[in-house]
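ARCHIVE CARD
Drawer: 12
Card no.: 0347
Subject: one protein chain, sequence and derived structure
Cross-reference: see card 0346
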Amino acid sequence: MDEAGETESFGAERLSDAAGPTAKKDRLREWILLDGNRLVVAGGVLGLVLVVVVAVERLGWVPLQRDQPTFYMFSALISGNLTLVTVVVSINQLLLGRELETPGSLESEIQNVIEYREEVEDHAGEIAPVKPLGFLELLFENTRKEAQRIGGMTFGAVGRETRSEVDEVVEALTDHADNVLHVLDASGSNTFDVLSVTLTTNYAQEINRIRRIRARHGDDLPESVMEALDNLIEHLQKVDVARQYFKSLYLQEELSSLSRVLLYAGIPAELVSVLALLAFTAQKGTPVLQYAHVLLPVTVTVGFLPLALLLSFIVRTATVTERTAATIPFTTPSQEQ
């Protein structure tokens, strides 16, 4: 069939326990880009900076025989960090300031969210949880049940070819929903843990396959099966709506955290850099300069703290944005990894 060559992207790669060097590299890459604690990732960046500076110093490339280059370096770190913290925090506040809306806009937005929630509850036949984790679990449980229901409805009611195509979609969606529910059971309840489960696809390919089945075999499919396929498409679309909404919540939380962490880290980094600059102004033979070979790597590493934090946070927000750029009915290669 035509769609056999289409990319099937249910995120199994991220959820599987594949072995081998390539899989380990992929897991490390995903940990750095998404799954790892941002403070730990920043710590890894600082550790790498420390190792490089110490190695360069041990190789004799930094003899510390002249003070002037050291002054330039710490002056650049001080001014650079001031600019970095100020600009990033200001931009984040501008972005978050867009969330300030009029009462009418807020009322309209809240009403849209309520209507969406009620639609999900109508399909599920129960009240949906208020937390993202429970809400997403309900969405995938609904999708899994609907897919299995379609599989049962086509048994003995359609031709072999049609049933084979329907079974492929049903089996793939069922397996994917099982994997997602398993990961959700083992994950935390914060917004990013919930969002990360849905990053690998927006179901555009799967919806397209269902539409092809309806277009090709509509004459052979009972009306009840056609309605069930329409309901399945609606379930998948609701998952994508939830993903985009949780993404907006996550980005607000992440940008707020980044602003706060940068402010907390910026003051110590600036203080250490200023003290180091003042220390290197001492006369030759001063006790503090006797430990310059130890002082230099440590102070330079601390001076890179704001940049390391910015890197660790922005890498994840950029990856999330890239993998959720398109919404149904479109998709992008980065969303089908």
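Annotation on reverse: The longest helix spans residues 223-279. Residues 1-19 have pLDDT under 50 and may be disordered.
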